[in-house]
Amino acid sequence: MVCANCEKKLGRVITPDPWKVGARNTVESGGRKVGENKALTAKKARFNPLTTKFGQCRICRTKVHQVGSYYCQACAYKKGICAMCGKTLIDTKNYRQSST
């Protein structure tokens, strides 16, 4: 779970999505140019395993699976918070949240 502000920080895929509705990297949505080489133009969104550091979850201390995130997906789901910034997305007081 990621909030609307942190959705801009998410990594982008080089290949276009086969499901066009709602995709950020298609020509129709304005996300790509025709004939653009995404491997050359998207340097900051490209994954580099040598310089990228995956941090630890602030709650359970496991490795997070996304660069820039402070919480793992399991803890973010259970607490109802954004995985990147920790902002509360949903009140989980009356819910029975479990990861299975």
How would you describe this structure to a colleague?
With 100 residues, the chain is largely without helices or strands. It is 11% helix and 0% strand. It is built from 2 helices and no strands. The two termini are 16 Å apart.
Global mean pLDDT: 77
Class inferred from helices and paired strands:
little secondary structure
Largest sheet: none
Low-pLDDT stretches are none
Helical percentage: 10-25%
What is the β-strand count?
0
Order of helices and strands: HH
Number of helices: 2
Distance between the termini: 16 Å
Give the strand content: under 5%
Q: Judging from the principal axes of the Cα atoms, what is the shape?
A: globular
Task: Please state the CA-atom Rg, rounded to the nearest Å.
Answer: 16 Å
Tag the structure with descriptive keywords:
single chain, 11% helix
Please outline what is shown here:
This protein is mostly loops and 100 residues long.
List the helices and strands and how they pair.
Layout (H helix, E strand, L loop, with lengths): L37 H4 L31 H7 L21
